[in-house]
Amino acid sequence: GHLLFGVEAWFKTSSGQGNENTAQAFATIEYSEASSSNVGYAIMPTSTASNTGYTDFALESGSISPNDIDTVDLNLQVVLDYRYEANETIVIQLSSVGSVKVDEDRNTFTWTILNDDEVPKISFSSPTYTDDEGDSEPIYIELDNEAGSYPYVVGLPVTIDWAITNGTTGDGDHNVVGSGN
User: Fold this and answer.
1) Above 80 in pLDDT, residue 20?
2) 3-state SS of the chain?
3) Which of 30-34, 116-120, 163-167, 173-177 has the highest mean pLDDT?
4) Where are the domains of the chain?
5) Predicted TM-score of the model (pTM)
6) Which strands form 39-46's sheet, in the order they lie side by side?
7) 37 or 50: which carries more pLDDT confidence?
8) How confident is the model at residue 147, as a pLDDT?
C-alpha cells in the first residue's frame, strides 16, 4: 500500500436501523482517495435502564484499513438475544489515525437495533380456583418464556391489569380489592 497525505474519511450516511434478529448491521466508511492508511473508530453504545448489562452487538473500538480501496464496511455484529426490550442504539465515531483526516461533519454514525422479539405472554397457572369459606388461596400468573425453542427474558417493566368479579359470591365474600395492576 501507499500513504496519501490529505486523504479524508467519513461515514457514507449518518444512520441506519434494522431488526435485531434479521438485519445485517454495518456502517460504510468512505475515503476521498484509495488508501491503506488506518482510520480509528470508537464505539459508544447508548441504552435505557431496561437493557443495561445486555450487549446486543459484538464490536469493540479499534481501527480499520481499507487496503487501497475508497470504501469499507464496518460490520456491527448484532447479537441475537431473545430478550424482549426497548430498541437500542450504537453510536460510532471516527477519529484520525496517522495521515487520514476525518471529516468532522460526517464523523458520527448511529445504528438503531429494532427489537423484534416476540411479546411475552402471561396466563393464570389455573383457570379457576376453589377455596373454603374463610380461607385464602394465592392466584399465580405465569410467564410463557419460550420464543420458538429458545427461552427469553423480559427486559421491560411489566404491568398486569386484573379485576375480580362476582360469580356466585357477593362483595363481602372476598377480601381483595376488585381491580388493580
Assistant:
1) yes
2) CCCCCCCEEEECCCEEEEECCCCCCEEEEEEEEEECCCEEEEEEEECCHHHCCCCCECCCCEEECCCCEEEEEEECCECCCCEECCCEEEEEEEEECCCCEECHHHCEEEEEEECCCCCCEEEECCCCCCCCCCCCCCCCEEEECEECCEECEECCCCCCCEECCCCCCCHHHCCCCCEEC
3) 30-34
4) 8-114, 121-180
5) 0.70
6) 15-19, 108-114, 88-96, 39-46, 62-64
7) 37
8) 56
Strand 8-11 with 101-102, pairing: parallel
Q: Report the mean per-residue pLDDT for the chain.
A: 76
Classify domain 8-114 at the CATH superfamily level: CalX-beta domain (2.60.40.2030)
